[in-house]
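hey
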C-alpha cells in the first residue's frame, strides 16, 4: 500500500485541503487530555515572544496556536504564517487579526532574505516535508544569528495504543507511528544538529483517557479514512467500545515535545 503522508500533493489536495481532518485530531486532545494545560498554550509559553520580533510559522494550519493565545500576542510584532494548503490559510485568516501576514509556500524554499527572522516555528509539521535537511537549512538561513527554531514533534511510541488497536483489524493499514518516525523526538536531533549548534528538548507530559468511542474513530478516520473499509470501521468502533466498557475509558499514552534549536549554521559557515 502506498504511503502518502509526506507526499505534497496528497497533503495539499486531500489531507489538509480543509481543516476538517486536523480539527478531528485536535478535538480528541482538547476533550480528553489529562494535562490541564492545553498543548497550544504550553507551546506559546515556551516561545517567549517580545515586541519588535519578526516571527515565521511554517505549516500554520488554521492558526490554532495563535487563535488560542491571541490575547497574549504582543501588539508590536510581525508574524508571517505559511502553509502549503490554501484551504488552511483561508481558515487561518478568519481566526486572527492584522498582526499576521500569510503566504502559501514550500518549507524547502523560503522566499525570505537571510537572517531576517528572530524566530521560526514548526509545530508538528517537519515530518511532512519530503526533504527535511533542505528545509532545516532554509530555516537556519533565514534566522538571525541569535534566532531560535521551535520544532514540535512526537516520539515513536506516541499514541501507540491506536496501532495496537488497528493492526488486528487491518494489518495492511499505515501505522500511525510511521509518520512520527520520519522526524521524531528520538531522531530529530540528528537532523537539527546539521543546521544548528545548540539543540535541546522539552517534553510535554500528557495522555488521553477517552470515554466515548466516536471521537477516537473520528481521529482514526482523519488519518486512515481513505484506506478503511466499512467492515473495519465497524470492528474498530466495537473494540474501542469494549475497552471503555471494561476499563471506564480508553487510555492512550502521548509522547510529544518541543525542540529548541539555537545558533543557526549558515551555508557559508560550512564552506
Amino acid at each position: 500500500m502506498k504511503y502518502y503522508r509526506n507526499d505534497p500533493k496528497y497533503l495539499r489536495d486531500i489531507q489538509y485541503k480543509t481543516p476538517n481532518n486536523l480539527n478531528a485530531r485536535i478535538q480528541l486532545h482538547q476533550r480528553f487530555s489529562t494535562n490541564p494545560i492545553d498543548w497550544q498554550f504550553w507551546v506559546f509559553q515556551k516561545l517567549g515572544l517580545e515586541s519588535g520580533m519578526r516571527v515565521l510559522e511554517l505549516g500554520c494550519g488554521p492558526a490554532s496556536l495563535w487563535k488560542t493565545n491571541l490575547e497574549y500576542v504582543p501588539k508590536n510584532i510581525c508574524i508571517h504564517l505559511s502553509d502549503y494548503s490554501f484551504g488552511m490559510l483561508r481558515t487561518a485568516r478568519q481566526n486572527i487579526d492584522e498582526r499576521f501576514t500569510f503566504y502559501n509556500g514550500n518549507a524547502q524554499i523560503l522566499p525570505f532574505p537571510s537572517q531576517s527572522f528572530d524566530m521560526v516555528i514548526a509545530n508538528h509539521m517537519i515530518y511532512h516535508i519530503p526533504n527535511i535537511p533542505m528545509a532545516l537549512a532554509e530555516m537556519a538561513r533565514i534566522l538571525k544569528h541569535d534566532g531560535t527554531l521551535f520544532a514540535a514533534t512526537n516520539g515513536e511510541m506516541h499514541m501507540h495504543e491506536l496501532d495496537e488497536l488497528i493492526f488486528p483489524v487491518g494489518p495492511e493499514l499505515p501505522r500511525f507511528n510511521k509518520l512520527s518516525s520520519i522526524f521524531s523526538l528520538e531522531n530529530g536531533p540528528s537532523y537539527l544538529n546539521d543546521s544548528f549548534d545548540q539543540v535541546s528538548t522539552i517534553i510535554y507530559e500528557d495522555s488521553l483517557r477517552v470515554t466515548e468511542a466516536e471521537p477516537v474513530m473520528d481521529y482514526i478516520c482523519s488519518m486512515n479514512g481513505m484506506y478503511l473499509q466499512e467492515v473495519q470501521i465497524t470492528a474498530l468502533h466495537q473494540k474501542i467500545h469494549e475497552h471503555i466498557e471494561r476499563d471506564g475509558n480508553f487510555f492512550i499514552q502521548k509522547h510529544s515535545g518541543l525542540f529548541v534549536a539555537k545558533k543557526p549554521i549558515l551555508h557559508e559557515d560550512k564552506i
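The mean pLDDT is 89. The two ends are 42 Å apart (CA to CA).
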